[in-house]
Design goal:
Eight copies of one chain form a homooctamer. Chain A has 226 residues and is α/β, with parallel strands linked by helices. Chain A has two domains: 78 residues, no CATH class; 132 residues, 3-Layer(aba) Sandwich (Rossmann fold), CATH 3.40.50. In chain A, 36% of the residues lie in helices and 20% in strands. Chain A contains eight helices and eleven strands. In chain A, the strands form three sheets. A five-stranded parallel beta sheet of chain A has the order 8-7-9-10-11. The radius of gyration of chain A is 18 Å and the shape is globular. Chain A starts with a strand and ends with a helix. Chains in contact: A-B, A-C, A-F, A-H, B-C, B-D, B-F, C-D, C-E, D-E, D-G, E-G, E-H, F-G, F-H, G-H.
Chain lengths: 226, 226, 226, 226, 226, 226, 226, 226
Amino acid sequence: MTDNFEDLGFAKLDMSRRERTGVPETIYCAGKTKEQLVEIFKAFKSKNSPVLGTRCSAEQADFVRAAGLNVKYDAMSRTIVLQAGHLPRLNGRIAVCTGGTADLPVAGEAAAVAEFFGAEVDRHFDVGVAGIHRLFARLEEIRRADVVIAVAGMEGALAGVVAGLVEAPVIAVPTSVGYGASFGGLAALLTMLNSCAEGVSVVNIDNGFGAAALACRILRRTQKHD
Amino acid sequence: MTDNFEDLGFAKLDMSRRERTGVPETIYCAGKTKEQLVEIFKAFKSKNSPVLGTRCSAEQADFVRAAGLNVKYDAMSRTIVLQAGHLPRLNGRIAVCTGGTADLPVAGEAAAVAEFFGAEVDRHFDVGVAGIHRLFARLEEIRRADVVIAVAGMEGALAGVVAGLVEAPVIAVPTSVGYGASFGGLAALLTMLNSCAEGVSVVNIDNGFGAAALACRILRRTQKHD
Amino acid sequence: MTDNFEDLGFAKLDMSRRERTGVPETIYCAGKTKEQLVEIFKAFKSKNSPVLGTRCSAEQADFVRAAGLNVKYDAMSRTIVLQAGHLPRLNGRIAVCTGGTADLPVAGEAAAVAEFFGAEVDRHFDVGVAGIHRLFARLEEIRRADVVIAVAGMEGALAGVVAGLVEAPVIAVPTSVGYGASFGGLAALLTMLNSCAEGVSVVNIDNGFGAAALACRILRRTQKHD
Amino acid sequence: MTDNFEDLGFAKLDMSRRERTGVPETIYCAGKTKEQLVEIFKAFKSKNSPVLGTRCSAEQADFVRAAGLNVKYDAMSRTIVLQAGHLPRLNGRIAVCTGGTADLPVAGEAAAVAEFFGAEVDRHFDVGVAGIHRLFARLEEIRRADVVIAVAGMEGALAGVVAGLVEAPVIAVPTSVGYGASFGGLAALLTMLNSCAEGVSVVNIDNGFGAAALACRILRRTQKHD
Amino acid sequence: MTDNFEDLGFAKLDMSRRERTGVPETIYCAGKTKEQLVEIFKAFKSKNSPVLGTRCSAEQADFVRAAGLNVKYDAMSRTIVLQAGHLPRLNGRIAVCTGGTADLPVAGEAAAVAEFFGAEVDRHFDVGVAGIHRLFARLEEIRRADVVIAVAGMEGALAGVVAGLVEAPVIAVPTSVGYGASFGGLAALLTMLNSCAEGVSVVNIDNGFGAAALACRILRRTQKHD
Amino acid sequence: MTDNFEDLGFAKLDMSRRERTGVPETIYCAGKTKEQLVEIFKAFKSKNSPVLGTRCSAEQADFVRAAGLNVKYDAMSRTIVLQAGHLPRLNGRIAVCTGGTADLPVAGEAAAVAEFFGAEVDRHFDVGVAGIHRLFARLEEIRRADVVIAVAGMEGALAGVVAGLVEAPVIAVPTSVGYGASFGGLAALLTMLNSCAEGVSVVNIDNGFGAAALACRILRRTQKHD
Amino acid sequence: MTDNFEDLGFAKLDMSRRERTGVPETIYCAGKTKEQLVEIFKAFKSKNSPVLGTRCSAEQADFVRAAGLNVKYDAMSRTIVLQAGHLPRLNGRIAVCTGGTADLPVAGEAAAVAEFFGAEVDRHFDVGVAGIHRLFARLEEIRRADVVIAVAGMEGALAGVVAGLVEAPVIAVPTSVGYGASFGGLAALLTMLNSCAEGVSVVNIDNGFGAAALACRILRRTQKHD
Amino acid sequence: MTDNFEDLGFAKLDMSRRERTGVPETIYCAGKTKEQLVEIFKAFKSKNSPVLGTRCSAEQADFVRAAGLNVKYDAMSRTIVLQAGHLPRLNGRIAVCTGGTADLPVAGEAAAVAEFFGAEVDRHFDVGVAGIHRLFARLEEIRRADVVIAVAGMEGALAGVVAGLVEAPVIAVPTSVGYGASFGGLAALLTMLNSCAEGVSVVNIDNGFGAAALACRILRRTQKHD
């Protein structure tokens, strides 16, 4: 086990991850100072390595840009991307579905990360089970996906219903959307863990990144067998 | 407020409830001794008053029968009924739906209580959202009901999906069916409280009785306006 | 199932709901941008459809009004209403009761929504069980209601006491009013779910809207039988 | 601080507590072996000291009696008493109220302990708030008490309602009676802690002993001032 | 039961409480607008009735004073008092003890309320069990009290230790002081409910008011027997 | 959507699932009566359809066998299998790893279900992180798998460590193994949901079946692309 | 990292641990079959290696003895020991203190394990803080210990009070002793985690073994420096 | 027990602690006013006693410095130190390890406190188990420590893995780093309490101070035996 990490003191960066594994590096921006982010992005740029940051605030993004780094920031999904070198392409499609409008930031993070990792992503937003015809209207399209990411807050029933309707693996992402007895996403999390339909597994509340990373691991497996 | 209760020492019985309100009396059997139950049923019989007991064990029922009381016991729903005098009839239908087979005892309690209170009940069992076509196969029938009681454990998503498909009020009953992160029905309870569809309210976990009692209050309201 | 939703990208609006079901549309404003709200209200206005928004901040309301939309905003209940066309009228009365002064925003939301849906509403505020004579002073009036909505935080005992005193269905709304071991409304929620009186069901913490929507479903049922 | 404890190895007994403080000793029987209980009761008998045991099973009581000890056992309250010497008398009355029949074991423990400590006890059982006229029928009597112990499970609303109706201090005892979302008495505990009425404090779930011990401390204070 | 409440619309004030019961009225200021507070204090002043407000912010207090009301505000305990007429005096002493410095606001509230209700109060601050000699240094004084109020956050062990050392009733007030696994006072609350020493009961987290109100009920009982 | 379910009253069986989807049917035996199980297995036998039952007690299995059904029962994994017709074969390998010996029943269920669904399974038991060299000794083998199922109770750290060492998707199964603050598997569940390594998702506590079903969905996806 | 484990299939045994590290091996018996235990003990005997089993039931112990193994079983602490070869001796003393009699099984496990690991152990049982003079009576002796293990259920205040009185490190063991709001030891666990005194750390509920193992690690460190 | 505390009214300071016990005093700054901090630091300065403050905000530190006190403030660990007199030196090394960058403030507090108490500290930051080779790269160094402090948020698996790899006692510090189902550090806390490796104990969430204080107690024990 050789250590490929560059040690900035406050963080150890895996500069050769893409070369080694085909998977580019990602950074969790929340809790990092603006100065630390600049240093990190500069380190990747100097190696001509692409990098994506999640949970990046508009203020952080502005600071990074002001430092002369040519990054792309998406406010809705709070992702920041430094394009560099050549990104891998993955075969297969990921469908990202959401229960409601308020789940968009989490779904957006999932979609942005999956695309950064090389996957093709179909977005099916606002197809929650309270008006189930909206889901059926999209079903044929969703069934074409190799992996489905189901993002939902409040009652979180979307994942189980979808898993009963498709054959692909379903990754459920509970969101903290809701109030009162949603307890910050706990209700949706429990719903998803207790799904009666087979074929569902769950990541942490609001963890769009984790869902996308797992979905891409699945697609890479698919590839391996081609 | 005149007190119509007969005081047996261990319990105060409302002997004239049916005369006064049109609603016959019910008894929660769990936690009562066999001897206490016999005494209670005899008191009602002596007044020619009907009474229904919930959460009645087979052993309790045998003991009551052995004491010469002509009761009807249903093992699945754990209800015991002493027919006496004349029961009220309610206009309107109640649909009792369940997510899975294991929810039957709770659903059975709801149905038995509603029928004892005079309602007509349609049973739609095993129509959970994991195989949603089972629900759609019954939808037209469910839409005919004046009140829907949706009984479900595990993820508990049935109530919200049904509420999005019918116009009647939906009473959700979470059940303790499940394991692990169902936490004894807590997961289903939270799902139902966070339902995105309007028109749903929730009773305690496994409380089939409470759902039926509320459903019949609604039907009585309907009647009043006829 | 024909889809009557107008897709604004960030939301799918049910423009023909009132024509189809007699129930006008409502919008949950929290988490939507000011610009999105304007777009939504304009879409309804263009179809001459009424719409009510809940959880609307004063700032959101000001922005909508500044965009030239003739809406009515009520700061206490945080509701915003666009009157348009003809609203349905419902027979029957809803009594909205609160335990204390601090429950007013939730009770106000329930009352505003019920009135928007066409119901007649009686308000009985500050009748909590700590000074139970205040409740008895209003009891005769409350007994005239077809549905009672009982709104209470802290100990949340109001719903159970009321349900023991009236014959109408009681919809309990726990509120997040309180501190310490109220745990953001959890204490009141549990109290209400464990109500010893029959005839009570519960909606989410602070969900005045849900209580009103359910109450109106009940009134509509009543109507159907007239 | 002189140590008055007799050390049996498995327990240290305060043999001179009554002489020193006027308060006879009590023993928590649950979790002790039958043999240990016999040894404990013999030790007290040898000093002609009275002692009361709580949470005593019928089997434990039988064993103690079979060992030749002249004890009085009450199955309902699970208390066992060795009368010996002279018990103190306390001025003042304690009212023990319960919400329902199933709360009797806890209420019985409170009453037995209070009487053992020398207090006069009035029992008001089955006066829960779901049928509040039952409480009002007893109110004048309850108001005569110097301390009220309010024992209730499920929703646990009794304590707060009583505290709003009397001037005496109210000690609330939540019980584990209930099912589902009562979570073993947690719901009643939270209700009582959040009581809107002033003058209420709470002991542990099912802790009839603790309520009685505190009530008698209060009565002793009263005495001191006579 | 005659209603002595003055209805301000947003609140019902018990103007004759002091005359009727000897106990002056108190107001919970949190969640009330500044304008409402002024109206309330003016109503009491017009009847020459004293009133104490708890959880009063400095901003609220300034506004009330600016409205020409002659109130006394204490920033540490967040209490505001309108002196008027004649306050009752209670025999007996209350000892208010705290575990640490950070518990002072809650302890201060308890002390201020008890004094407003006419009790004599001894303050024993910063006597927590981590340095138990601090408690022993004050013990003789604490033993003179008729009621002990033990205020503590974090581990909350003070109440149980004190109850084992005094003969007076002990009212435990958990505080939200702490971090991490104190879970906003839950740890201290559970500690106190599980106290091994007899003679302890518990009020809500941070509820200094409730502890004082109960302590004064106990003192009044004492008086009654004089 | 044609309904292929055979309705036994107490259960609706999907008799043609294997023909339709290539996935044979499975039955959750817990909560079903022995007689119901016999009826279910006979129905499948009559159609020459294979079926696997999970959570099957030894008593249930004996009864089914006594009814003349030729089933294979495995006590450790509590699975019961009726071989019939032709089972599908899936390309790709699943590695099932466990933290400790006590996790074997859950891991066994996962392995049995995966094999029933046609997958090749490698078992790596007792490779928990407390003695991490045990995991490293197996690492090369585990890296050959297309999907890793990581089963662990108590601290549940296995899944995250494995995910950092392999490139395949990792399905984490928390188990209820442990005591005290493991809270029935909650600790392991939370650990797994908060995994710092990417590529992990989680199923319900003790849900070996769900992990296997999901793993096979992933393998089927792989196949599709071949 | 050479693997010294003997693989029995169901368990991997570290046969050379004592030789390698000076620490003899221990076995967690709960959840293992009687046959597995016999096999494990035989394996150790064949290598002349000592081994201690924790959480061993009387039935398990009888079976092991019946298999001809010369083990010593202690019913109170549920430990079973196979003496073999030469055990290490550790310098330094460990004081094991308990709050009450019911904590003895956990304290006994701690003491037995520490003695098996070679430490000298002083037992100070039933010195809980409700009668704090019992603790002071033992204080000088406790202060002589190099490590203090404080075992307590219910309120769990012992650890914090002791840590304020001694200079040695204190290892707190919450026990599941208690009822109601002790929530299976959660209350004691939280108390100990929130200890105001410095020098305390906490192991899992009822984990006497873990406390002893840690205490002996500390003593071994001491030795190293001699 | 002589009282060595200087009573400032709002706090009792142990001015002679260093002289008496060799351990200098520490202050918890959070929740204290700036003026109180100045008074406290002045009191220590006047006695030429060193003191360290934890949880000190930059604003508090500025104010103390502006008051002419020569203190050293470290923003990352939020510690403030007044050097005075002669600090003790401890033999032995403490290794402070963290899972990730975001755990630095807590780890920094632990390191600063340990150094203030006289220990030598090695820092091993960002060695979390998701990339376990980072830990192995540091293992030999970590093994040299006499006590290991393992600081980790999110899944919190670091402590258990380290304890399986070293022989020194391991003190685990869960941090509140994370989101969603980390529930403010609860997930990491539970992971650590359930550690399968022996030799681990746990302090409160984010309690770097407590871990250091305990580690130094252990080192002092070591010394005593030299």
